[in-house]
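User: Some background: our group keeps a shared notebook of sequences we're curious about, and every so often someone picks one and asks for a predicted structure to add to the entry. Today it's my turn. The entry only has the sequence so far, pasted here. Could you supply the structure so I can complete it?
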Amino acid sequence: MRSDDESGFLARTIPAGDGLKLHVRDYAGATRNRPPVFCLPGLTRNSRDFHQLALLLSQDSLAPHRVITLDARGRGLSERDPDKSHYNLVVEAQDVLAVCAALDLRQAIFVGTSRGGLVLHMLAANRPDILKAVIFNDIGPILEKIGLADIRDYLNRDKKPANWSEATEILRENHGNAFTALGEEDWQDMARAIYASVDGKPAADYDPAIAAQMQALDLEAPIPDLWTQFQGFQDIPLMVIRGENSKLLAQSTTDEMARRHPGTIVKIANGQGHAPILHFGDIPDAIRDFISGL
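Assistant: Of course. Here's the predicted structure to add to the notebook entry:
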């Protein structure tokens, strides 16, 4: 993460429908009536994942966009929920709508990484009017069990780094085979995005109850698909970013998404796994190209 990872945005606190406080980063730009971009992170991730992309899009010299990034409930600086059953896609979709209402966002271009993309399926089924366009980051209506097992096993290992060097090494140990394109600084960036700094040391930045849900996942049971909800994207411009080495989003699922949604833009993140870093390589240019005509 850049040394200025705490600048370039306005920090906001917005109440969810049940009063739980949600943390939002608001990267305002001279938007000239361009639609805002709203970024939703993965299962145990947070708004810092999108910081560098948000700077690129909000400070673009030709076509700046306002960018909103959210810490979902129980993650980052958002409050932990005393009712752990609220860590579900329906409630998290309602949280997104609460933030949109508070910021008077009638429509936005949504970026959904992993779980964030599943939340977007809930919105497509119930509030497609709020979706100006959608960018899926390594997620779709079918989740591969081998990818879910990877996430579960990673959370089960739960190694706790004593310092930032160890945090970087843990990430490289867990994800190095999938993220072959990353250099040393990229791994350091990832560590700063994933871990919170507590007294100068890295610490997990999510409610342990969220990881516990995943750790208890029964992969012997059928995993329901979301093709019914996917139909809600029918009239919405769609882009799918797939990590070349992803185990969660199969190429066959990406192909089927494009078949069911003609005009879908598919971008392969070379040398990356689940989920691709969106400010890396030529991905920002692909995103800019996609949103430029919206």
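Suggested note for the entry: The chain has ten helices and ten strands. The CA atoms of residues 8 and 55 lie 7 Å apart.
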